[in-house]
Structures are given as structure tokens and as C-alpha cells.
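Hi U.,

Before I forget, here's the chain from the pilot set. I'm dumping it here mostly so it's searchable later in email.
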Amino acid sequence: QEQPVESGGGLVQAGGSLRLACVVSERTFSKSAMGWFRQAPGKEREFVAGINWSGATGYRESVKGRFTISRDSAKNTVSLQMNNLKPEDTAVYYCNTDPPNMAFWGKGTLVTVSL
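Structure:
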């Protein structure tokens, strides 16, 4: 099973925006609900947002109203639009199936939010 490839991270000031993208295999994309997860330094990896077959979405409380997850079937891509970023959003962001497949973690993409 190919690992997902995440991109779009970077350094941004508080209040700024970033858009993350994750490309997965067609087989994975067509069979799975997908999610974004993150791991901050010294902390456990945590769920951020998920999207299922029908486009229904779910978010952790701290990102509701700021983050938007979407999926593009034509490109086998799952995206995460992040607005009004806060320093506490600093983390490595990963995509995976939802619930996550432990063997499927990619390298992630680093998001750093400065004051």
C-alpha cells in the first residue's frame, strides 16, 4: 500500500492561512473515509478533521470554524484549508484513512505558526 504524500506546510504568522494537500492511491481514496491528523512536539498525535464518502465532515473542537477539509475524487486528493492559524496549531500534519491505518502514515508536512 503506497504511503500518502502530504504537502503545503510552511511558516506563517498567527492569523494567516495555509492549504495542505494529500495525494493517495486511487484504491485507498475510493474505499476509505479520510482524515487529517497532527502531532505537536512532545505531544501525542491527534485527530484534526475527517471526511467520509458522502462528504460529511467532522472536526476537533479547537479548529471548528477555522479549518475546512475537502476531497477531490478526480485527483485522489484530500485537502485541509486552514485559516486564522494560531501558534497552538504548530505541528506536523499527516493524512490517513479515518480511522487511521497504523501502517499507512506518511512523512507529514510541518506547519509552524509564529506570533
